[in-house]
Amino acid sequence: MMEPSSFQHLSVMPEEVLEWLQPRAGGMYLDGTLGAGGHARLVLEAAPGSRLIGLDRDPSALDKAREVLAPFGERVSLHHRTFDQAGAVLADLGIEALDGMLLDLGVSSHQLDTPERGFSFRHDAPLDMRMNPTVGETAADVVNQREAQELSRIFFQYGEERYARRIARRIVERRQQQPLTRTGELAELVRDAIPGGRRPSRIHPATRVFQALRIQVNQELDQVETGVARAIDLLRPGGRLVVISFHSLEDRIVKTLFREQSRGCVCPPKLPICRCNQQPKVKLLTRKGVRATPAEIEKNARSRSAVLRAICRC
Ligand SMILES: C[S@@+](CC[C@H](N)C(=O)[O-])C[C@H]1O[C@@H](n2cnc3c(N)ncnc32)[C@H](O)[C@@H]1O
């Protein structure tokens, strides 16, 4: 497991990733969410002579991973891309298929703990939340420009926030005076918008709204939906895909996609013979999501919500 450093990120479920990915000597692997390169390093160490293509949408993660993976030299090739673009990267490199791919979704501890990235309500900072700070809308753009109804949908759908409408209304009232630009302002507004006795006791009252904005800003669910479906097509027969999700919305997408692709015939049961000729594309390796052990959760609180699912290409 990676040692904590100034770029702290403890890789989640390291043993389980190796157990389900089964990296083999000389194989071709892709880590679509490279982060600090912790899992990638484990794969390269476990599989002598293997090659690893690493993608991340965050340039600072790639810088760190470049350092961590430097000892593996030519075996590693890193790219500033989102994982739904993995196919284009492979085509550029002239690689036809993969022996395995890993997606460890969501934000890294480094992103959360860097105040100026604006992911956390724990630090007062600009309201940004972009994993790739070079493109796209910031969280400030979203809260200052979207209609109340749209904000309410985002908070409810991506944060499962019960007081989504109230919070959205408060935001619209506030921005009529002046735009919201800081995480601290938003966290306070959300806390004040939730009736006193109804504030969650175990999490910060702004947790759900911050999660929702982060998902919206980074189009996280679209990435999972498109990226996971495409990833399956990049595997050679027998190749494996391992996905670690951190909230139920992501996990539901992964679970549904894996189930659909593992189904054979989809003809109505009344038909005497199969007409669809649909063959299963993948075999489910983990029927139920795999969870971190209590020992890991004690060392790394982030692993508490992690769910790992794996498939093997038929
Ligand atoms: C949980 S961290 C990965 C940590 C890594 N597995 C390790 O062991 O160090 C997630 C990383 O995925 C990146 N990321 C999230 N969504 C992405 C996407 N759609 N495409 C590419 N990178 C993404 C984030 O920028 C972040 O660096």
Short description:
This protein is of the alpha/beta class.
Word description of this protein:
With 314 residues, this protein is of the alpha/beta class. It starts with 13 loop residues before the first helix and ends with a strand. 44% of the residues are buried. The site of S-adenosylmethionine has 21 residues, from helix 2.
> How would you state the average pLDDT, rounded?
95
The ligands found in this model are: S-adenosylmethionine
Report strand %. Answer: 5-15%
Write the element-wise H/E pattern from the N-terminal end onward.
HEHEHEHEHHHHHHHEHEEHE
Decide which structural class fits the backbone: alpha/beta
Task: Please give the count of helices.
Answer: 13
Largest sheet descriptor: 8 strands, mixed
Q: Describe the global form.
A: globular
* Cα distance spanning the termini: 31 Å
**Percent range for helical residues?**
40-55%
Number of DSSP strand runs: 8
Low-confidence parts:
1-5
**Rg, Å, rounded:** 21 Å
